[in-house]
Each structure stands twice: as structure tokens, then as C-alpha cells.
Amino acid sequence: MLSTARAEELLTRASKQRILVYGDLMLDRYVHGNVERISPEAPVPVVHVQKETGVAGGSCNVAMNIQKLGGQAVLAGVIGEDTHGEELCDVLRSENIDLAGVHRNPRTQTIVKTRIMADRQQICRVDWEDPDMEQLAEDREFREQVLAQNDACNALIIEDYGKGMVTPNIVRPLLDSAKARNIPSGFDPKDNHAIDCSGVTVATPNRKEAFQAANLSEPATNGEAIISEVRQAGAHLLSAWQPELLLMTLGPQGMALFEQNADPVHVPTRAKEVFDVSGAGDTVIATFILALSGGASFREAAELANTAAGIVVAKLGTATCSPEEILANLN
Q1: Would you call 282 a catalytic residue per the annotation?
Q2: Which pLDDT belongs to residue 61?
Q3: In whole angstroms, what is the distance from residue 167 CA to residue 178 CA?
Q4: I want to staple 226 with a disulfide (CB 3.0 to 4.6 A). Which of 22, 174, 219, 285 is the partner?
């Protein structure tokens, strides 16, 4: 069990860590209102808007988590030269996130997910995204810019949201560079998106992604009945992907650690209540890599990440947590 004193030591070291976060950058917008009637035009609720907010989404949320935990996040990816891109940059700058690896391209639009919220319930989501984002990620000058930023950091996170930025031609050089420099690297995969991540320090699929990647049917039930299936999926991916560690998040069941030549370890959840799981995977990989870069063992990093995830799932929407919240939770 991770002691509070050891957790505080690891979190204190976070201020010295500079971590590159590469992947799909997006803006999460929330339109909040209340519903008092049904539209006469169609059988849908009419939302009377009270406020709108914009927060960092996708890979940007990983960077936000690193920043809130005391580290220095360096963000890399592509956004558009549009008003949504400017809004996203303003949000990120307000948290002192380094945007040195962010390329604003006039040939694309910033990815935006707009959630319509009524009385704390999501009614629908409206997405704007560019199907040609993968072509922008293949630009040689952009890839060189990202690799240069990686050389200036002491940890790497690749966050795949399936929007096109995570391609073999950029993932492989980034992971090889991290391996050569002996710095921690993390890869958060997207379901149904095969990428060679061999040699990565840790891969962090959720249960659904893990079972899909392993070509196994995901169990419909929770609890002890799924342990053997989880072990089978984890062992398959550990062999197929060849990471040093596979960290499978299991929702209410916590997470499972699979390490080469070692027995799997189950880390039960620390969540007291689950309100919204949006972005919980971002918190896990951000906390885990930040802890590793500060000298944590795999198990210590997993316990910190598990604690952080238990905090953010009790919050509404894409959320982060602070070192103080983690220490209070451990106490």
C-alpha cells in the first residue's frame, strides 16, 4: 500500500518533470440550460441556455491533468486557424501549458465536441472534426517539430482519440527516441486502431479497448466472474504489443497490471462514487507517467493513478484533480 508520505514525495517531484503529450487535440464545449417544455416542431426537449463553457479535451485533457498535478506539460498536435482553435489555446495558456508543439493549420478545423446539458444530464452531443487530419500528421516538417520537443522532455505520452493524429510514422520515432534516452513513455490506444507500440513503458487500454484489440468478446458482467477473461486479454496484449507494462482500466473494478514475466496484479478502485467517467483514462495515464518520471515503481504509479481516477469520476464532465485531493483521499 502506498503511504501518504511516499505519495507526497512523488507528487513533490512532479514540479521538476517536463512531459510531452502528443495526440488528438480538441475543445470540449458544454452548453448548460434547463428544460421546461417539449418543442412543438418535434418530440425533443427545448433547452433554455443559461451558460456555455469551453474546456480542454482529448489529448489536451492529459496535459491539463499533468499541469494540475504540478508537472509541466508540453502539448503537440494540430488545430485549425479558427475561433475554436483560439479559444482552446486561451484555455491552455491560462494553465501555463507549453504550446511549442501545437501547429495551427489553415487547411483544417479544430475538433470540437459540444455537449448539451440540461439539469446535469447530457441530452446530446454535436461533433465537428476533419476527416483529413491524418494527412496533416504525415507532414515532415511537423513531425520534425514534434520530435524536437520530445528531445527536450523527460517523459512522453501518446494519446490516441482516433481522429487521425496518431500514425505509425510519428509514433515509432517518438517511442524509439524515448527508449534511446531511457525516459518513461505511455500509450493510450483507441479501440479498433492498430498501432505498433512495442517498447513503450506502459500501454493503458480500458477494458473495452483491451478486449477488442485481443479479439475477445467483452464480458457482460462485472466482479469476480470476469477475472479469468481479463487475465486472458491482458496476457494476449502483453505478448502482441510488447510493452514493459500493460495497465488495463476496469471501471468500477479498478485496474489490472500486467508485467512481462510476472503475475498480474489487481488494484481495486478507490472511487467512493461514480458520477461521470469522461476523461478518467486521461487522468490515469497522466498520473502514472508523471509518477514514473519522478522515480515511482510501477505499483506505486498505479496506486497514485488509481486514486486520481477515483477522484475525477466523482466530478461532472472532463475533470482533473490536485495533489492535495490525492493526499486527502489516501489519508
Answers
A1: yes
A2: 94
A3: 17
A4: 219
Q: How far is it, in rounded angstroms, from Cα 294 to Cα 282?
A: 18
pLDDT at 277 over 80: no
Higher pLDDT: 35 or 330? It is 35
CA dist 306 and 253 (Å) reads 11
Q: What is the pLDDT of residues 99-130, one digit of tens each?
A: 999 999 998 999 999 999 998 889 999 999 98
Cell of 304: 497514485
d(CA 126, CA 149) in angstroms, rounded, equals: 33
Q: What is the dihedral of CA 31, 134, 278, 39, to 10 degrees?
A: 30
pLDDT at 223: 56
Distances (CA, A) of 91 to 53, 75, 126, 138, 311: 10, 13, 20, 27, 22
191: pLDDT strictly greater than 80? no
Note whether 80 and 87 are within 8 A (CB): no
Residue 258 CA: distances (Å) to CA of 58, 195, 196, 262, 268: 26, 19, 18, 7, 15
The answer to whether the CB of 270 falls within 8 A of the CB of 329 is yes
Angle between helices 323-330 and 4-13 (to 10 degrees): 170
- The three state secondary structure string of 132-191 is CHHHHHCCHHHHHHHHHHHHCCCEEEEECCCCCCCCHHHHHHHHHHHHHHCCCEEEECCC
Asked whether residue 222 carries a pLDDT value surpassing 70, the answer given is no
Active-site entry in 24, 130, 188, 282 = 282
Cell numbers for 4 = 501518504
| Cell numbers linked to 208 | 473495452
210 and 253 Cβ atoms separated by less than 8 Å: no
pLDDT at 270 over 80: no
Radius of gyration of the chain (CA): 20
